[in-house]
Amino acid sequence: MALSIDFGGTNIRIAEVTNGKIKNKRKVKTPKTKNQILDLLFNLIDSYKKPNSICIGIAAFVKNGKIHSTPNIDFNNVDLKNILNKKYKVPIYIDNDANCAGLGELYYGYGRNKKNFVLLTLGTGIGGAIIINNKLYHGKNYAGEPGHMLMGGKMFEKEYQNYKKIKSYKKIGNLVGKLILNISYILDPEIIIIGGGFANNKQIFPSMKKVFHEKDIIKRKIPIIRAKLKDDAGLIGAAQLPKN
Fold this sequence. Notes:
By secondary structure, this protein is α/β, with parallel strands linked by helices. The chain has two domains: about 1-100 and about 235-244, 2-Layer Sandwich (Nucleotidyltransferase, domain 5); about 110-225, Nucleotidyltransferase, domain 5 (2-Layer Sandwich). It is built from seven helices and twelve strands. The chain has helices at about 35-45, 80-90, 95-110, 155-165, 170-185, 205-215, 235-240, and strands spanning about 1-5, 10-20, 20-30, 55-60, 60-65, 65-70, 90-95, 115-120, 125-130, 135, 190-195, 225. The two termini are about 15 Å apart.
């Protein structure tokens, strides 16, 4: 059994995960400060029986278990793997939360029979995972972060936040449709999967698909689908980190 944690800018989810099945799931608000976050993580982990491993997906740039940058959480430069290793004496696996969601869909969702796909998470920010030849693609370390691209990504992220505030679902759909069209010209995936909390708003999908398909000059009709695992994609995917 893996103890899996999906650590986002708004909520932290935790559950026991075995063979893609979750139990004893809890969800709490993400605290504001670094010390509060660590205290909460310790309390959450201590509330479960000792796992075989602790697997964490976090909304951050992660390298070797250290958090190098996390724009929406006060958790920069925290060597989380080392901290947890010292305290719990079990294997610790940490990666970006969107990458974990991508792994969830690869092993147990709509990516199971696909070699190449892209997953976008629409939550506090915009995250992404790239699967190439059935493997999570990291690049050198940090691939798959569309929300931080200088040419377009920052604009998408800013406008996405503005439209979220006014809940203009059509405008959000238009925005994300343009973003995934840009990504598709570079990666040409078999499918595009949309996850994250905001993907629960089905109103964004018609305009997203309309913009994407109408503006695609190649007219590829790449399917755009909501993550099969929904909010559990990150939890289930984090538990797959030992395989990757």
